Amino acid sequence: MENYPRWFIKAGLIYGLLGALLGLGMALAPAAAARIRFVHIHFNLLGFMTMMVAGVAYHVLPRFNARPVPWPEGVKYQFILQNIGLLGMVFTHAAWGGSWRGGWVQGLFIASTATAGVAIAMMFYNLYFVLLPAKPPTPERITGEMKVGAVLGRHPGAMAVFIESGFSALANPAARNTLAKVVSIEQACKKHGVDCGEFLGKLNRALAQGAGGAARPGGPPSAPASRAPAEAASPPPPGKPIHPGECCEPDTLVGSLIKVYPKTMAVFEKHYGEGCFSCPGQAFETVRQTAEMHNIDAVLILDELNGVIAQASPPAP
Q1: Can you list the alpha helix ranges (DSSP code H) found in the chain?
Q2: What structural domains and CATH numbers belong to the chain?
Q3: N or C terminus of the chain: which is more exposed, having fewer CB within 10 Å?
Q4: pLDDT band at 95 (very low <50, low <70, confident <90, very high)
């Protein structure tokens, strides 16, 4: 769990305890009830309930809707302003009767109320837009300046297009791990006598149609999407498992990836923290979804994961 959702929950528990103690005090000293009722109510509602809801929602909603909060920094500001506003309200009311006394005391009470209201507006903005459907990702457009190895690392299924176009040497893992990492697509096309513009158009069309699926390094290339229009037209599954010998893709399931390649846990721990390994969401969350939830570039995560996979010894059957 991230820091601020955890702090929201901790603060909510503290306010809940204070609210309960004040309720007990009201029962034991009815004469003081009128003075502390406002504090009791607001510790319970704005303190306990609102902060507990915010903490749980910030942790759960982005994870299960696979969409990050639109303003991550606002979570911190909400926590600060909500505490300042709440404490300012209850202090001015309990100490000086701020809601009715008038003068600077009432002004301080109104300012505290406005501060708490701004914090609630921040929570509304972040949580409401998390619930909206995520926009479909824009397919990456491959250019001639990109390295062959980098393209294959992000789109393993593109291997089929390369091999069909005459880059048969890429079927050798040694070539993919050496020359492919330093040679651009444009340079490779010149070396093999392939028209670069025509090849890039074919490659981008294939990736846009879903040909960027899993392909085992050194294994048989997958069929181009143009040969299976019915499959290309159907919506892709939310996530897919990974098998020994395959590279990681954006829609690879995190739980399957860790099971097949345990060393990739180090990458997730580096960027997400240790708490992800106890989260049940890894069973159905993809690498892309987790990157979006933690506001990290998915390409960066994929490059590091595939780097670990390339260095790992073949897993035991």
Answers
A1: 3-28, 33-42, 50-65, 72-96, 103-130, 148-154, 159-164, 173-177, 185-192, 196-208, 229-233, 254-260, 265-272, 287-293, 298-311
A2: 3-130 (no CATH), 139-224 (1.10.3910.10), 238-312 (1.10.3910)
A3: C
A4: confident
